[in-house]
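Late entry, written up from scratch paper. The run itself happened at the end of the previous shift, but nothing got recorded in the book at the time, so transcribing now.
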Amino acid sequence: MICKECDMQIPTDRSANGMILTGRNRSLDPEIGIVGGSAAGLFAAHLLSRAGRRVRVFEGSPKFNGKPRTLIVTCRMREILGRMAESAVVNEIRHFELFTDGRAAKVALRRPDLVIERTRLIHTLAAAAEQSGAQIVHDRRFVSLQAKHGAIAVQLRRSSDGADEEVEVSTLIGADGAVSRVARTAGWPALPTVPLVQAIVRLPKGMPTDTCRVWFIPADTPYFYWLIPDSPTRGVAGLIGESGPDTFKALEGFLERQHLDPLEYQAARIPVYAKWTPVLRRLGGGEVYLVGDAAGHVKVTTVGGIVTGLRGAFGVAEAILAGRTTSKLRTLRRELDLHLLIRRAIHHSTQARYSRLVDLFNARTREDLEGHTRDEPGGVLWRLCLHQPRLVLFGLRGLISGKQCVHDVAERVAM
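Output as recorded:
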């Protein structure tokens, strides 16, 4: 079966007697429950419903009215979602400017990055899920779960009147974010998180709206600062840190140095990928899966999780329909592990090492970066090492000199 919106192959689910499960015979099919109306959760609902499964999404809020948050993703989101992606796109980025200690490098992208507004994406995916046959139930906050009669009994609570209710599903998907209550209740360990803080600002005079600027200032953060245009006059400036209060103070100082006035602040907690989290646990006769931030499907190089979350949701939906783990989850695991290796190599870099890194960006290196997205770490890493061998030495020195790896950082930020 082909998902028309995302143009991707979905295995057709069949009942025990081989009959295709469609909208006419869904009553024969055990129900799938999804906790959390996240992008990954709603995409999984869309895919499973299109394949004929009965799906209900339980969302804790009375309606999808989350605060807007501007994000930058690779063009791979378009490849996954097709025309569904367009409603969320507010700008396209065709150039990156990298700065560190007075040095600068510019990279042109052959395939533009997309600046999206998260709330728009959620509304689009919710509409697609409902159109495919999924039911979205609001004002249902997850309380607990337990194995019961060969299924999973899920306890939910309505915030409107405090009443509790119980539903039974054959499969439960936790899509409830980085601090997932489903994951904790089902026995998964807590994921460490880091703060993301950004401010809406007016763009500096003369800044091209198709250009994203990135600053590496390791005295402030082991990650980076960014300035991303989301309209002809405005953009978001922000960073990822390790401590919430320190991260906010660092952003205030950065805005002052760059002469940027904050109009509004946005913030989130992002999971840190330290190792692959198995996405499936069996409880009695039922199954519990995790998708998106709940599963830690986030690139630790950039702490971006929209594209990897959608891909993880596709892998989980495919596993449910096929009755086994498929190659999509294995591929995602390899890519996230590669991002972890890169993060370990650069996480403890000094200002001097970042300056040296920018100096290594020769013409061939820039071509490699231009032709590969951040969601293709294997291809870009191989070509970078081929065309700039000194990058191998740079990475090895980072791995050796970093007395703490990302695992250690994860433990510290979780304390």
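Confidence is low (pLDDT under 50) at residues 1-8, 11-28, 392-396, 402-415.
(Scratch paper discarded after transcription.)
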